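Contributing new records

If you add data, match the layout below exactly. Sequence lines come first and carry their own label; structure lines follow with theirs. Keep one chain per record. Anything else will be rejected by the validation script.
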Amino acid sequence: MKAMKYLVMGVLMGISVPTMAQEADFNSALKPVAQAMKDNPAGAEKMAKDFLKLYKKNPEAVLALGSSYLTVKNFTKADEMAEMVLTRFKKDNKAQAEAYILKGDIEAVKEEAGNGGDAASHYATAMSLDPQNPTGYMRYASVYRKISPELVEKTYNELRKNIPGFPIEAEAGHSFFSGNKFDKAFENFAKCDIDKLDEGKLVEYLVSAVQINKYPEALKIANFGGKKFAENATFAQLGLWSAVETENFAEAENIAKRYLTLKGDKNATDYTYYGKALMGQNKFTEAIEKFNKAMEVNPEATEPLARISETYTKMGDEDKALEYSEKHLAKNKNANIIDYANLAQIFVNKAEKGDAATNYSKALSIYDQMIAKFPEYASWTNGIAAGIADKAGKEDLGAQYNQKIVDELGNNSNLNDNQKGYLKQALRKLGYYYWGEKNNLDAAKPYYEKLIQLDPNDKNAKAALGIE
């Protein structure tokens, strides 16, 4: 079991009190102790001793203190609390089970990348001591989830038998979510009756959907949660994002208006999404106001600049679009290839309105930068640059860009579908360039011969090669 990885880890590090203690009145007394463990570990010891004096006869309180120690990875003290309960409350099976769960949690946190046998053994003991405590089953299953699905299913069957009606999928979803396994969290939550998910798990379901880009599903979850828990701003916030991502712009605007009435700070991303919702409805002036608001909330934000540029592009104001695109690229150290392509497209748009030679040349200079900066996208970039060169009346330059694609991909026998598409387009254009533009069929034939291998039905290639 040396290769065991703990999917339960995220859950454990978020624990502040054991399951059986969550409603106990000692929690208010424990809170300052737990905070002191993080802020002032030395000073926390006296507070912990005082806490134990008051609650030493309460196993739940002792274990809650142990879980607080575990949160700050004080394994020795956490284990002392578990042993204290095992020693003092030998006849209390429920308390004994919780103590073994804590000991399992300690082993899980200590050896998150290693041997899981000790943790699993403690969880198994907890299951036998208190078959009505679901935590032991869920923790045990979390240890084995990746390496033995059969054992996990067996454990779940035992849980179903001993605790009929326990929401296993919901708890599994929570466990995966806490471990940042959003795909598995979503998968488990999706099996649940959404009406029976509590507010916390419903939020986790929504966040999981957003994290794995399942925006249509996220929008449905957000709308459901927003009606059931109207004051929870997360449903409105992620509902806004999901509505924009699914291009339901009018719905997104309505959600945004409600979101702004809810308590809590609104961040730059929120206002950016609000702006996108407005831009998607051609409410350009209002959209720019929201993007500027995003910049006001966070002056370091870069996306609002790109979206302002996009808005001005849609308005046909290339000069303002260019201004904000350049601001965006100057400020955003992580600008991607699309950001540069958008800048180049502004010059193309300007070229189509006048001063074609200058603006096409500027667009091509941007594509040359992209080829150097993003070599992994060279074929895609060369293909677009070739088309722009042709528009500019620079067919020879267009042929040079297409030749770069052939040089890169022509001898590669392991092309993906996109690469095959780039290569076929380049071969077609080069074949036409030499045959149609230069009237040199001999020069065109090698390109058509390569093309016919990739596309046996290409009419121009068949005509050039005399194939009926």
